[in-house]
Amino acid sequence: MDKIRIHSKDWILVCDGSKALLLRNDGDAQNLNLVEIRQTSNEGVPTHELGDDRPGRVYGAADGIRSAVEAPDLHEREERNFLAGVAQEMENEIARGAVQRLFLIAPPRALGLLRSHFNPASRHAIAGEIAKDFTKMPVYEIETRLQADNQ
Question: Which CATH number fits domain 11-41+55-150: 3.40.190.10, 3.20.20.80, 3.30.420.60, 3.40.50.150?
Fold first, then answer.
């Protein structure tokens, strides 16, 4: 894990493509006390409920032969939409002044997608990132892992 320093009242967003946990440190830099602010999840929806996009067809210009193109990954699209929504919520919190410093903890792919949805004005609030999946951990375990790295 990268060395990070979490201060009092810093916010921590722990998320992946289907779950987001927003925490705030009510302790100090030496003794973290993470408090859950909000939890959001995107329940797994069966593919048939996401849509019925079938593979498209393209026609060759010269010979008119039809070819199939790859079907869209509807679950990936749902994950992207979920992360875009989470980023928008965080931007709103930053804009209203509730968040001065934010730490992002997400798997590498989700972290990249999240990062791409923050506008330049909000990026100044991102104090650090950890490319790990902590979403399945209880808050006390997240706190313990961050505490060990915060020393």
Answer: 3.30.420.60
Residues in the chain: 151
Note the pTM of the prediction, 2 decimals. 0.80
Q: Residue 45: what pLDDT? A: 55
Taking the CA atoms of 51, 52, 55 and 61 in sequence, report the sign of the dihedral they define.
negative
* Domain positions in the chain: 11-41+55-150
User: In the structure, what pLDDT confidence band is assigned to residue 77 with cuts at 50, 70 and 90?
Assistant: confident
Place of tokens 């987001």: 20
The mean pLDDT of 84-99, rounded to a whole number, is 94
